[in-house]
Amino acid sequence: MLVDWNEFRATRTQLGAAFIRILGYFREDGIKSVAAIEEAMRARDARGLVMPAHTLKSEARQFGGERLGTLAEDIEMFARHCVEAQISPEEYLPRVVTLRPLFEETLAALEREANPLVQRGRSSFGRAVGY
Q1: Which of 72, 67, 95 minimizes the C-alpha distance to 3?
Q2: Any idea what the Cα angle at residue 92 is, between residues 78 and 64, rounded to 5°?
Q3: pLDDT confidence tier of residue 116, bands split at 50, 70 and 90
Q4: 7 with 61: CB under 8 angstroms?
Q5: Can you state the angle between helices 116-124 and 93-114, rounded to 10 degrees?
């Protein structure tokens, strides 16, 4: 499941009017986290993978981004193992390569669902109002 829509709706309800702003922060932070993870992988820097993967995991799950959160958690845990074992994280390169497209797919789904025009269009299009 790409997005847990129940979690998404719960977060939207909890955040209220701040929801769109916080989703914008997820976009900004996510772009930075993905770039930092890619850069750390290029440098074979396991330590550099940990925090951006942790951040991406937490923020994705806040909005119901389950697949993205799971992948980020997998990268984070493996990076922690690499730091402890003092080994290179390069065997996770194929997973890191899938991170950006998954982030973009998840973000697009969240933004489509969050768009107020989409919400209005769904609820009222084609129905007579007041009859």
Answers
A1: 67
A2: 70
A3: low
A4: yes
A5: 50
